[in-house]
Amino acid sequence: MSKRHVTTTIDGEGREFLCEDWQTLLDVLRDVLMKTGTKEGCGTGDCGACSVLLDGRLVCSCLMLAAEAEGRVIETVEGMAEGDRLHPLQQHFLQEAALQCGICTPGFLVAARALLAQNPDPSEREVRFWLAGNLCRCTGYDKIVRAVLAAAAEMRGAEA
Amino acid sequence: MSEKSTEGRPLKWVGTRPVRPDGVEKVTGRARYGADFARPDMLWGHVLRSPHAHARIRRIDVRRALELDGVKAIVTGDDLPEIASEQAFVGEEPTDYRMLSQNVLARGKVGYVGHAVAAVAATTSAVAEEALRLIEVDYEILPHVLDVLSATADDAPLVHDDLCDRKGVKKNPSNIANEIEMGHGDPEAAFTNADVVVDRSFTTQAVHQGYIEPHACLAEAGPDGQVTIWCSSQGQFMVRGYTAKLLGLDLAQVRVVPAEIGGGFGGKTTVYLEPLAVALSQRSGRPVKMVMSREEVFRATGPASATRIRVKIGATKEGQFLAGEAWLDYEAGAFPGSSVAAGSMTIFAPYAFEHARSHGRDILVNKPKSAAYRAPGAPMAAFAVESVVDDLARQLEIDPIDLRLQNAAREGVQSSFGPRYKRIGFVETLQAAQEHPHYDAPLQPNQGRGVAAGMWFNAGLQSSAAVMVNADGSVSVISGNPDIGGSRASLAMMAAEEFGIEYEKVGVRIGDTASVGYNDVTGGSRVTLATGKMVVEASQEVISQLCERAAKVWDVDVKRVHWADGKAKVLDDEAIEPLGLAEIATGAARTGGPIQAIASGSVRGVGMSFGVHLCDVEVDPETGKVDVIRYTAFQDAGRAIHPSYVEGQIQGGAAQGIGWALNEEYVFDDSGRLENSGFLDYRMPVASDLPMIDAVIIEVPNPDHPYGVRGVGEAPIVPPIPAVVNALRAATGVCFSDLPVSPPRVLEALDAVS
Lengths: 160, 754
Hints:
The complex is a heterodimer.
Chain A: E1 4-10, E2 13-19, H1 25-32, E3 51-54, E4 57-60, E5 73-75, H2 88-95, H3 105-118, H4 124-130, H5 142-159
Parallel strand pairs in A: 1-5
Antiparallel strand pairs in A: 1-2, 3-4, 3-5
Chain B: E1 5-6, E2 9-10, H1 23-27, E3 43-49, E4 55-61, H2 63-67, E5 71-76, E6 87-88, E7 95-96, H3 97-104, E8 109-110, E9 116-122, H4 125-134, E10 136-141, H5 148-151, E11 176-184, H6 187-191, E12 196-204, E13 207-208, E14 216-221, E15 227-231, H7 236-247, E16 254-258, H8 274-284, E17 288-291, H9 294-300, E18 303-304, E19 307-315, E20 321-333, H10 340-346, E21 355-364, H11 378-396, H12 400-407, H13 426-435, E22 447-456, E23 462-469, E24 475-479, H14 487-499, E25 506-510, H15 527-554, E26 561-564, E27 567-570, E28 579-580, H16 581-586, H17 588-591, E29 596-602, E30 609-619, E31 626-636, H18 643-662, E32 693-698, H19 720-732, H20 743-753
Parallel strand pairs in B: 3-17, 15-16, 20-21, 24-25, 31-32
Antiparallel strand pairs in B: 1-2, 3-9, 4-8, 4-10, 5-9, 6-7, 11-21, 12-19, 13-18, 14-15, 14-17, 19-20, 22-30, 23-24, 23-29, 26-27, 27-28, 30-31
Helix pairs in contact in B: 7-8, 10-11, 11-19, 12-13, 14-15, 18-19
């Protein structure tokens, strides 16, 4: 049984990897490419910890086969900062103390980034429904929602 | 600069909200959690789990599995040492090493669906999983018991037939593993003097802590007998102690490196995988990584107990509580050790009773062994007692906060669990809730407001910390407690405050078991309180060394030197230029060498925490769905070192409690198989289920802590269940006594009324 060769772009870099047909993108990110910033909380698409962007669209990387990444553009939490300059979402998660244990944080950041890309001015309700696919057990979501709203405001201000 | 002060000293950092030291690595994906470690030549381990709730293991045949290409080692119960019965105490729930060993890997009998029977290590995860299918286990299925009532029936099948009491003496065969009783006075007699008596019974279902990170570890056993374990847990010393005990290793041979931990809430105060990974590594000679699936987390790691609780309170018509009595039955799971003791201790704790008694029973059932869950045992007890207090307020037509204020525990009151209270902030917390605009805000039809209170002891336990001055004047702090929710920030802030230096000049690291003194688990809301106290003590010792070094440089009596604003100064001679941290540190080689101190101790004076929660719900009469539409939580934090993380604890605890009240429950079929072993069917609150949770911090300083800290992490999960259920009663007029109050149950109750 030979492995499949996949060519893809991950966090702005061209990457090639070999994978089994049945391996998920999450398996390959974490165990083959050693990009462990993307987390596994359930493996069934219920917790959102493994959220990545696939050609700009929010997906659970545990529900996608690695082979499907051929020719696609993948963005993870590890590509959000530019050098040591944090993305406004990352900055506001820190300022608002929107993480406690931090295991869900990569997924929330990626999901929130996808939200703000299509809706730069979401209401609290829109943020809450968009992020309903991401579980956090520590924060009660209060500070996460505030951080996303604050980041959105800053990003709108920067563009204006 | 803050206006607040400790002993008149102005505070620069305590009470502010700096970014946590470990923040950037956590928002960039660089932080390494339990499953993020790898070693060259590493194997993957998987666990074969029982499909039966209760069965005798006649035979395990691993031959076919061992023949599979890539399988390197298999362990079964026969491969682990027999462990004598011995009580361990490093967490919040009692643990017997013999039972712990049997829970980690079944011996002779399986006690629940999901109980570990064998473990395999193979070159890939897929091969290890394939090997599990090739292991043949011959089970003799035994009758099982799944709840308190059937477990305590006269003819109940026995979960264990060889139970011993705490002194190691064999007990009469029964599923009642332990019985406790506590209290004072004579409630039975006092009830006869009461104008009103409320006597109700309640049930709650097992719920899971629901941390998002599944259990994971990587273990490497060398040919010299040395073992290294990288894992996420609530205590690297707990993992070391338990693993060494279960495998017969010397503590000095085992090093546990703490990973970042992706949530614990009490559920990671014990071991499941680590002894298996080490045993597999010993047999294969290679590092072994093990990661649980979410389904394994649900089936095989500790839920909080399902309970049956009866509470009886008698009061005068003026509202004075005369007597309280409670009977608490908690499911331990397949091994003894539920949180019933803490439930029995907390149930009447918020109130001053002349006569109070509680009777607790720890009951074995064929379900996963229960584990600690945030304020273990208290939320279920609070559900019962605060529902009864709500009844009393209604019957007596007294404002529910007034009734609580009238009976509130305060300094000097005899607690129902023994000691007299020192300075506590329950009254102030109740008053803050009563004065808050939320309390009399108008409500719409189908809406209702509930109030409830709760307490948690907090724990001191054993802590160590090391503080070092670096050559450039920065300060390194080593803590031995995994940081689950921002404790590195609070430790750094207290150290910066002591030294009078910038927060950014303090680096805090979590040491492995070989680089810092022993610490009990991160549990009991104790790290900022207890380990923080050790950081303060070690800092003070370092500061006195710094003063001595400066005295040497100046050739003055050290009594003339004092420390302020990050500098040593000579009190009575302003002409002598003060020496800063960096200057003293740079010259340390000439004044006595490296400057550092270690503090360790058994920390007492924990300062108990009280919380009062206000909850508004709206009920949809068509579907029975309950929405929490406004929530305000008040808590005495003693002093909030970093208010954002105190608020975060309060908000997170409230959200967990709301989930416990409205949706969460383990659902078992008749065979004892958990039917909802995933996040889709085990429904924890998501962002769209909740409103903002307003956290109001009350500060009644703990007199026994240098900064007045009380533990804050656990108390906030105690009041939410009764706050929600009391609100639901206000909205519907229906008393709910069984959790969860999920839509079908609410709808059924509404239909019955109409």
